[in-house]
Amino acid sequence: MFGIINKEGDKMNLSDIKGLGNVGISHLKKLGIESPKDLIEFSPFRYDFIKRSNIYELKQDDKIIIDGVVENIPNIYFFNRKMDKMTFKINTGEKLLTVTIFNRRFLKDKIIIGRIITIIGKYDKEHNTIVANDIRFEKLGNSLKIEPVYHTTAGISNKKIENYINSIIDSNIEIKNNIPNYFINKYKFIDKKEAIKYLHKPLDLKVLNRCILELKYEELFLFMSKMYYLKTRKKKIDGIERKIDYSKLEEFINNLPFTLTTDQEKTINDIYEDMTSNKVMNRLVQGDVGSGKTIVAICTIYLNYLSGYQSAMMAPTEILAVQHYENIKKLFKDYNINIRLITGKTKTSEKKEICAGLEDGSINIVIGTHALISENVKYNNLGLVITDEQHRFGVNQRGTLKSKGINPDILYLSATPIPRTYALTLYGDMDVSSIKTMPNGRKNIETYVKTGKDIKDVLMMMYGQLREDHQIYVVAPLIEENENSNIENINDLYEKMQRAFGKKYNIGMLHGKLKNSEKEQIMDDFKNKKIHILVATTVVEVGVDVKNATMMVIFDAYRFGLSTLHQLRGRVGRNDLQSYCILVSDKETKRLNILEKTNDGFKISEEDFLLRGSGDLFGIRQSGDMLFKLSNLKNDYKLLLKVKDDVEEYFKLPESIDFQKDIEININLN
Ligand code: ADP
Ligand code: MG
After folding, report:
1. How far apart are CA 556 and CA 583, in angstroms?
2. 246-435 belongs to which CATH class?
3. CA of 331 to the centre of ligand 1 (A)
4. Residues 449-464: pLDDT tens digits?
5. What topology does CATH give the domain 446-598?
6. How buried is 62 (Cβ within 10 angstroms: 0-12 exposed, 13-18 middle, 19+ buried)?
7. What separation in Å is there between the alpha carbon of 284 and the centre of ligand 2?
8. Separation of alpha carbons 41 and 34, rounded Å
9. Which ligand approaches the C-alpha of residue 288 most closely?
10. Residues of the chain with CATH 3.40.50.300
11. Best mutation site among 545, 547, 550 for ligand 1, i.e. most ligand atoms within 8 A of its Cβ?
């Protein structure tokens, strides 16, 4: 369905492209291009618009596009074995100009005295020369030349990319349009190959925009079709129809040290409905940091346990897995439930034993990191899978775990309130419950943006908290010493904290390079107030819960996205103590001011989205789920909504059967 097939029906490879050898192929790989399909979909990141020039208005090194009559036979010079340079003169009617062009001696026969040609290049006014990068022999459509500009890397120029792409487009390949005929006719879309061609060799702006729109439409159509397919399929799949004694859960909830918020209750209700229905659960619980998602997850695990099934819970980091494990153990200490922890660091012998327990069903609940799916873990009767901070797992990883049970119910927890566009795409195939109310007594976290010059203020504020017997997180972006940048690194920061507070207070340091046991020790010490200031990288970002910590100081805050900063800030303010967040930054303070103004994660993510676009928000990029080649969720939101409607309309038509089958095959291939 999605490859490029030549007329003989064979799949085309990069090595089939003229002039592209192994070296070139390895260069392309660096740009993420691994197939001819990738190559033609490698769209220009911008276009240069070059006006047909009036030679007298041009300055040195201006881009030029100009017609002229060839005045003489070209001279060709060779240097080293591979390079050549060709020069000749043209008469523009106003001026005689020298044209220089490199490595294009094969054009020599076309440069005939008296022929009108168009030269595109750079004007070297001083030498009355055009250094050309293209010569056109056909008449250009209008007075504007639109030049594609690609991302490049060492060893591969814009021109090379253009040439490779042209050689694909000019060959007799077929490029299948994945938009159903129904919409091709409805919107009068042009042939896909034409659209691709004009994407790379635009004739005029109108056609270009039309082609980009069509290609984006196709991209989004395929994506939304997959989402829609998954969503409807899930609704059809039989799940476990449980009989659960709800009063047992009520009893458990009544014994908690706090009362659940309304939204927590509502979410647990949604989940109960899902679990007792005969359809499989596929639910996302979305709630700001500290809104209390963990207890919802634990109630879900208990419901699942009551109905006689095993639960697996995955966390994105070891620290968090351990924390969940301890939490759950504590809450179930009076219950006869077998709970185990499995991570990448678990000893082989213990792992074996846990695996055996999961396989024979004697273990009821397993908590872990990726190891839960990367290992060869078999389950006896897995009924529930929970993933915390789910956007950190790729679709494939989720799929692997799912496939380990017989249609287990799935619950995702996410502390990242996301803009509507993202919700639609990233979570398009899920049901969503939101926890909007924060547990009672939670105060807003007072947030201040400070510059490096205010460091004394910052230290004073820290001291104020320490004197109250509260604890502090200090976060820095990097661990490696980097001489070339001013980035405060964590060692450095640790030293600074030692100098400022080391006499009276204990300072700990936490980063990704420490051994697991060391990390745990440090976290334990922090929890038990043996450490007062914890200097850390973003390992503390997700989920870590120390109630007595009331201040978060983040250095070089500009290096983080607003959502990440908001997540970090959520590490404090975990009970009714007034908490503070200080963002130290000499740059981009305006962006950071948004955090001073609001504690509402949803608003923050919208602002971040508007400011930074689909960039590296929320680590979504990392998960690879959201990589559109052409479309951009921020700018193409309206189109996305349109496509969503079209997909829903189309899937109801009988003629969409084959298309749906293709989508199914494609999903299973990935
Ligand atoms: P998150 O949603 O960020 O995962 P947690 O589940 O870690 O948040 O909860 C944050 C803290 O709030 C925990 O210490 C938890 O015990 C506490 N908590 C959760 N729900 C309530 C509640 N209804 N009332 C009071 N405290 C709560
Ligand atoms: Mg959490």
Report:
1. 8
2. alpha beta
3. 13
4. 999 899 999 999 999 9
5. Rossmann fold (3.40.50)
6. middle
7. 13
8. 11
9. 1
10. 246-435, 446-598
11. 545
